[in-house]
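Narrative summary of target 7.
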Amino acid sequence: MKYYTGLDVAMKETFVCIVDEEGKKIYETKAQSTPAAIFKSLEKSGIQSEKVGIETGSLTRFLIKGLQNLGVPAVCIDSRKMSAILSVTINKTDKNDARGIADAIRCNHYKEVYVKSDADASVEILLKSRKTLVHLSGILKNAIRGFLKTYGVLLGDLQPENFTIKVREKFQNIPQEAGDGIKSLLKSFETNSSEIDIIDQKIKILTAENKRRPDSTLLERQFPWVKYLNVEMLI
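Modeled conformation, tokenized:
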């Protein structure tokens, strides 16, 4: 007899459901959303599953890698396809979702999703962190421009390196309270810009290392556009 497990993951708890090859529910429980706790609950069942399914989500990579390291045949499944399947459930609960995932694994009605390696995930976070900082810089810059317009100060088109200098030149005609607020924003903008520069240098190093690799897997596999990257493009 073959068995299949579905895990419905939430931030604090994960519902576990094991079904046999005929679709009969064999075991049901819940555990903390950590690899160790889930592994312990699976071990307690005494059942060796063919596959253990987990939907894509914020904790998925952490759980998949952790369970695989413990010898659990965990697979990551597409949450969008799974959502369509689970939407027809009459009584939709976390417990029933775990059962639905187990049945989908049993019937092979799922799409497996690639789980990023440690190197890929690390680089992705670095690049997304830069994207977040750039977005934040835009918010700060627009706020500063908007507040200065209150006093008729129009900065016009400026090169990034001239923005801070130009803003400081305008403080003399602004009330102290407003100036203090804008100075705080400007300080945050400068700090944010410095952090972007630091990340840019790290990306430059990674890009150079990647070009020396025969397989070019460090960046290009997950981010194909990186091979066209140069420092000037990071502004």
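Residues 228-235 have pLDDT under 50 and may be disordered.
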